[in-house]
Each structure stands twice: as C-alpha cells, then as structure tokens.
Design goal:
The complex is a heterodimer of chains A (220) and B (391).
Chain A (H helix, E strand, L loop, with lengths): L1 E6 L4 H10 L16 E3 L5 E6 L4 H6 L5 E5 H7 L4 E5 L5 E8 L15 E4 L2 H10 L5 E4 L6 H5 L4 E6 L3 H5 L2 E10 L1 E5 L1 H6 L3 H17 L6
Parallel strand pairs in A: 1-3, 1-4, 7-8, 7-9
Antiparallel strand pairs in A: 2-3, 4-11, 5-11, 6-9, 6-10
Chain B lengths: L13 H20 L3 E2 L5 E3 H4 L11 E3 L5 E3 L4 H9 L9 E14 L5 E14 L4 H18 L7 E7 H8 L7 H10 L2 H6 L4 H11 L5 H12 L3 H19 L2 E5 L13 E7 L6 E8 L1 H7 L8 E7 H5 L5 H6 L3 E6 L5 H13 L3 E4 L7 H10 L4 E5 L1
Parallel strand pairs in B: 1-5, 7-8, 12-13, 12-14
Antiparallel strand pairs in B: 2-4, 3-4, 5-6, 6-11, 7-9, 9-10, 10-11
Helix pairs in contact in B: 1-4, 4-10, 9-10
The chains are: A alpha/beta (220), B alpha/beta (391).
C-alpha cells in the first residue's frame, strides 16, 4: 500500500480525478460529510492524506507519503527534498509582481531600492530580487496580500495569479511574471529508490494520463 | 530567559542514553575484534578541515564565534583524515580507526533560518588501502554490525550501493555543458527537469532508462556491461557483490545496485552506500559511507597511499528500531533500601554495598520511612522492583 499527500483546496478535485482515471478511487475525500484526514482508496491499494497545500512537500520529503500532488509554486518556495515526477498540467497559474495601477511602475526594476514588498512566497520573491540586484524589504503575509499596496504598507506584492480578477478588483496590475506554475506529482526519493515496481507503475500511469489530458488529440 | 535547548539539539532522557550506550558499546567491541583502534578527534575544527576540501558546503557547518574560522564537525571523516595525514602520517598503512561521536549539522529551515541537527554516530575509517578487499572488509563489517545490534526483524533492511565512477561513466557520453544538469536530474530523480532538458529525444529516453535502472546487482551490471562494455569499475563491483551479497543475504539484508545513488556530501570518489531500514512510518537511512580517496589526496603531502573508505552508523536512528528486551534484561532489578530510624543509615549503606557487589542496582531512601504507603510511593517513584527493610 502506498500513501499520497493531497492538497485541500483548488487542486483537490482534479487530483482525485487524476487518480480515479488510473483506477484509484479517492472520491470519498470530496464528500461533504467526510471529516477523515487519512482516507483509504476504494480498492484498498492506497491511502490519501488530506493536508494543507504547503504541507504536501513536507509529508513527502519525510517519507510519510511516497507521492504527493502540489503546485510548483509551493515546491519552489519550500525547496524541500522531493523528486519532481510529472507535470500534471492542471492548476495553471503564474507568480507575478503586482503594484497599484496608479503607481506608475511598469517593471520590477522601476521599484525603488529598499521598498517594501508583501508576499506569502518570500523565498521566491527574495530569489527574484536577488537576481535583479534590487534590495527590497520583504514583508511576509499569510493571505490577502493585495491589501499591502492598497493600505500603503507595501509598494508591491509577489503573489500567484490565476485569472487576474482579484488583482483587477483591487486596483492592482501585474508588472512582471516570475514563473509559471501547475500541479506536480512529487515523490519521496528514498522510497522511489527502494521501489520494486508498484510505485513506478502508478507514476507511469499518471504520466500517460497527464499526457492525454495535455494533448487530447495525441499531438505533443 | 529561555530554558529550552536550541532547536535541533539533543536532550536525551536516561532510557535513550542507556540504549545509545548499549548500541555504541556493542559496536565498539566488534570494531576492536576487527583490529580497529579508537580515536577521538576534536568537536571543533578549522573550517578548512570541516569543509573537506570542498566536499561539504560552508552552509552546513555550525560556526563558532572566534578570531579564526572554526566550526563544529558536521561529520567525522574529514577530522579523521586530517589526523591520519598529519599526526599518523608516519604510521604503517592501512590505518584502521573507529570512533563514536556527536556531530552537528546546519540545515536550512523553511523560514530561512537554520535548524541544528545534532546526531550521535559510530563508525570506522580504513585509510591507505586501494584494494577492493578494503571495500569488502568495510561492507562485511557493516553487515556484521547490523547483526550485533539486533534490529527488530520486523524492519526490512536494504543495502543500496552506488559508485561515483559508474555515474561519471554514464555522464561521459553527454555534452560537457549539460553534464551538471544531467547529474542533478539523475541524483534527484527529477523527471520533470529531464522532460524540459534541451537534448535529443533519444538521449532523453536513454536518461529515463538510467533513472529507472536499479535493483539486483547482477542484472544491473549486465545491463551496464551491454551499454559500456567491460571495464574495471564494473568488474570490481562484480567481484564485490560475489562476496557481499551472500553475506548480506545470511543476515536478511537485501542488496541493490543503484548507479545514480548520490550522497549529499561530495566527499566520495568511488563506492558509496546507504543502509536503509523500513520503519513504522517511512524508510530511514541508518548507516552510510563510501570511498573518499580524493579527500585523502587533498589532505596529504604526498600522493602515496592516498586511499580511504569508511562508514558511520546513526545510533539515534537505530535506537528506535532496536528492541528494549536486552535493556530490560540488564536493568530488571532495582532495590530500594528503606529504614525506620535514622540510626539505621549506616547499616543501610552496608547493605547497599552488598547489592552492588552482586551487580544489582540499589538505592537508599533519604528519610526514615514511617508508613507502608509512603514507602510504596517511594518504591514507585524511584522505579524500584523491591524493598529491603533495615531494622
């Protein structure tokens, strides 16, 4: 039996669907009545751990879950030791720098040195500003980061953008994209090295499944 | 005032210390039977030594605030090689050393700070022999060590063996500008990076094949031989497995050849190995080691006999996998000596000595005991198994 760490929230439905397509039914986790955090699959071959998005790489890097599905943004932010196995294609979004639309800033390099930048992804933000040699003061927020520029606490934010609607509704505008993100299948490196086939079979099936989803007409 | 120990620092209770001591003393007796001598290098070394000539990153070392760059050792090999290349330079090779030590590593925490990782290890170093027999000796000793520690049979043990030269052989067929990237892909099992790598499709298919190549040594060596032809690395490994596999099998240890097995430290040049135990929740590396000839070369004043190989066993990790039966057997009797009048203290001390002479733990009540309830309470709180009354 293997264990998969699944992120609650936006990726859950498609993660469950991905496993369902390869014959592993975790649909019980989607039921409103479900309060269990560790849910066995209907076939009994696997169990799912229902965890927060940011905890998926933690469970996988410690080996409590051999596999996990999580956004690339979380992996890039945490840099934990997990193996990147399959780009699943769903959950597409991108990490961006946004400022108040009235600010006049058109790119990241326009931002004044040592300005305040609010983000939930401070490691990603730090890496980016280090790369462009712009010293900034990073303010870590746990959510609603759009409030940073609105209240005047920060000049800019670094945050995930899916449709851009939240930014627009709050009078913010994107000025630079840091990277694109999508859901990834990750694995515990040591468990993968010890695997004698069953885990690899699952990974291969998911790989084929994700290719089918990405290229339904068979073109690559 | 913060009274908690620093994050990651060990603060063991008596039971954990007893178990550590029991495991360490069993291992040390075994090492001595194999002709290894104990050495005890300092906890603090110069950063140059601790970084093992570039094998260990500066960030992983816990620094000491001082006028010169010093740090706490993150592992023991570099310190022992330093000693072998200086104080023991004139000694006849091979040098066989063992040590039981505490090491300190710095890990980057998610919030960007550092986590200290203090660990208690026991290990050996065999310095000055190139022969494959040195590798066979080390792995045999490791297998024997596992037997003597008596890890619970419910935990399955697997010995993963890799070789940095095999990895170099695999990498040698690629464009030199891509080698570092491909090496990371192979060592991190990063299939996504492979899919995005700018190389020909047939090369991707080949790397994918290598990524999935691990398992029974004979099978993997045959596959490698079919690809690269016969060479000394493959032949040496074949010889090694001929002896090691049956020895491991006798002890219930499965052996697996894994050409892409990397180690966190870039110390090793040649054979590398990790001994993995299944544990109740996740597999755990309980011992690791390898050949570090390049390190010996960098620390030596001459090129003569610059060979070294060693392993370290993580006692902290093994402690949780070893049954408490033996410890219970050793510590099952503990006598409380109680008395009703202060004047009996002298007699109580004499009686305590009698128990000690028999090798049995006995402690004396510090106050005269007035009631049976009070004495029973004392018996319980001191975890004693019986009371002896002194008149």
């Amino acid at each position: 039996m293997f264990t998969v760490a699944l992120a609650k929230g936006a990726l859950l439905k498609e993660s469950v669907s991905m496993f369902s397509n390869i014959g592993i039914d975790f649909s019980a986790v989607l039921e409103d009545s479900n309060r269990q955090l560790m849910v066995p699959s209907a076939c009994g071959r696997a169990k799912a751990l229902l965890v927060r998005n940011s905890d998926v790489p933690v469970y996988v890097s410690y080996g409590q879950a051999q596999l996990g599905i999580v956004g690339f943004d979380v992996l890039k932010e945490q840099k934990l030791q997990v193996s990147n196995l399959v780009d699943l294609g769903f959950g597409a979004c991108h990490m961006s720098i946004a400022v108040k639309s009235s600010s006049g800033y058109l790119s990241a390099s326009d931002l004044p040195p040592n300005c305040r930048v609010a983000s939930k992804f401070t490691n990603c933000a730090k890496n980016f500003f280090d790369q462009i040699d712009l010293p900034v003061q990073l303010v870590h927020l746990s959510g609603s980061v759009e409030l940073g520029p609105i209240t005047g606490m920060a000049e800019a934010i670094v945050d995930l953008v899916a449709t851009g609607r939240t930014l627009k509704d709050n009078g913010l505008v994107e000025i630079e994209e840091l990277f694109k993100s999508s859901a990834r299948l990750v694995g515990h490196p040591l468990s993968l090295r010890l695997d004698r086939g069953p885990l690899q079979e699952i990974i291969d099936s998911i790989q084929i499944q994700s290719q089918t989803n990405l290229f339904p007409d068979g073109k690559k | 005032m913060t009274l908690q120990p620093a994050s990651g620092a060990r603060d063991l209770n008596p039971q954990q210390v007893r178990k550590n001591h029991l495991i360490a003393s069993k291992l040390s007796s075994l090492y001595q039977l194999w002709g290894y001598e104990r050495i005890s290098p300092p906890h603090i070394e110069r950063l140059d030594t601790l970084m093992a000539a570039g094998g260990i990153s500066n960030n992983e070392i816990l620094k000491i605030v001082s006028d010169e760059p010093l740090g706490l050792r993150p592992e023991i090999t570099a310190s022992i090689v330093r000693a072998a290349s200086t104080r023991f330079n004139e000694y006849e090779r091979p040098l066989r050393f063992w040590s039981t030590c505490t090491s300190f590593k710095c890990n980057q925490s998610i919030d960007g700070g550092i986590d200290i990782e203090e660990s208690f290890q026991s290990g050996v170093e065999l310095i000055g022999t190139k022969a494959i027999n040195a590798e066979i000796e080390l792995l045999s000793l490791l297998i024997e060590s596992l037997k003597i520690i008596e890890i619970d049979q419910e935990y399955k043990l697997t010995l993963l063996i890799g070789n940095t030269y095999l990895l170099e052989l695999i990498l040698s067929s690629f464009d030199s500008t891509k080698i570092e990237e491909i090496k990371n892909i192979l060592c991190d099992l990063d299939y996504i990076a492979l899919s995005k790598l700018d190389i020909k499709d047939e090369q991707k298919i080949f790397i994918n094949k290598i990524l999935n190549m691990r398992g029974k040594p004979e099978k993997i060596l045959t596959t490698l031989k079919n690809i690269y032809g016969s060479n000394s690395y493959i032949e040496n490994l074949k010889e090694l497995f001929t002896i090691i596999e049956p020895l491991a099998k006798e002890k219930g240890i499965e052996v697996q050849l894994d050409p892409t097995l990397g180690t966190k430290y870039k110390l090793y040049s040649g054979l590398t190995f990790s001994l993995v135990s299944s544990s109740p929740s996740a597999p755990v590396i309980i011992a690791k080691g390898g050949r570090y000839d390049d390190l010996v070369k960098k620390f030596s004043s001459s090129d003569h006999n610059c060979f070294g190989i060693g392993f370290s066993i993580s006692i902290d990790k093994i402690r949780e996998l070893v049954s408490s039966r033996e410890e219970m057997k050793v510590n099952n009797e503990k006598v409380l000596i109680a008395y009703k009048q202060s004047a009996s203290l002298y007699k109580a001390l004499k009686q305590q000595k009698e128990w000690h002479n028999k090798g049995i733990i006995s402690i004396i009540s510090h106050e005269p005991q007035k009631t049976n309830d009070e004495t029973n309470q004392l018996l319980k709180s001191n975890r004693c198994t019986k009371i002896e009354w002194i008149d």
